[in-house]
Design goal:
The chain has helices spanning 64-69, 131-134, 172-177, 195-212, and strands at 8-18, 21-27, 40-43, 46-49, 57-63, 80-85, 104-113, 123-128, 142-145, 148-156, 165-170, 188-193. By secondary structure, the chain is of the alpha+beta class. The strands form two sheets. Strands 4-3-6-1-2-5 form a six-stranded antiparallel β-sheet. The chain has a six-stranded antiparallel beta barrel with strand order 7-8-11-10-9-12.
């Protein structure tokens, strides 16, 4: 489990093809300080298993399914990524419960900065969201974007396919300490909805089925 609080920004140093998978190598001295073989590290919100850790790098094998269903497939050598080590028992839960299991992808639609002269400078970012995931979003609820725990400001259900979107408001710290500050309109991002919403939906569905039987 993770919290969605990014610990550092790493840099992809190698992508090695391995048949229907790739071995991704990332450089970062923070998350590798105590990383061991088999540990979990979230890379842009995807839970990956560490192999071959060194003092400042780690590698992880990424299957074709993950490459196709997440933004990891768009990475290249030199790309920057959000990193977070798995939460230890007893840690503070500063964000929300994040599994590192990406539910789908969206794209940055636009970003609106605060008005000139406003301090501190913040931005509102709008992202597209698949219709199948939109039902799990509520205003002031939680969502994970590229591994970052964020609060939904607004959600608009479109009346045509691929027109549903949500917005988030990013403070200066988030803009500076995660890769969200460098996103450009059209960029693909990983989305993970709040797992509690999915559990509630399933329980209500079973309850409804029980009444009908």
């Amino acid at each position: 489990m993770f919290t969605g609080l990014v610990e550092s920004i790493g840099t992809v140093t190698a992508i090695e093809q391995q048949g229907d998978a790739v071995r991704l190598t990332v450089r970062d001295a923070v998350v590798t300080s105590d990383a061991g073989h088999g540990d979990s590290i979230a890379v842009n919100g995807c839970c990956l298993t560490v192999v071959d850790p060194t003092a400042d790098t780690f590698s992880a094998d990424v299957m074709a399914e993950s490459l196709a269903r997440t933004s990891l497939g768009t990475l290249a050598v030199g790309s920057t990524v959000n990193l977070e080590r798995a939460m230890a028992a007893g840690d503070r839960l500063g964000g929300h419960l994040v599994q590192g299991h990406v539910d789908g992808t969206g794209r940055l639609l636009d970003r609106t900065p605060s008005e000139p002269g406003t301090e501190p400078v913040w931005e509102i970012l709008r992202f597209s969201v698949p219709d199948a995931l939109a039902r799990y979003l509520v205003e002031k609820g939680s969502i994970t974007v590229q591994g970052v725990s964020l609060t939904v400001v607004e959600i608009v259900d479109g009346h045509a396919p691929d027109t549903t979107w949500f917005s988030v408001s990013l403070i200066p710290t988030t803009l500076a300490d995660t890769t969200l500050g460098a996103l450009q309109p059209g960029d693909l991002v990983n989305l993970e909805v709040d797992v509690l919403a999915k559990y509630v939906e399933r329980m209500l569905a079973h309850r409804s089925e029980g009444r009908q039987s």
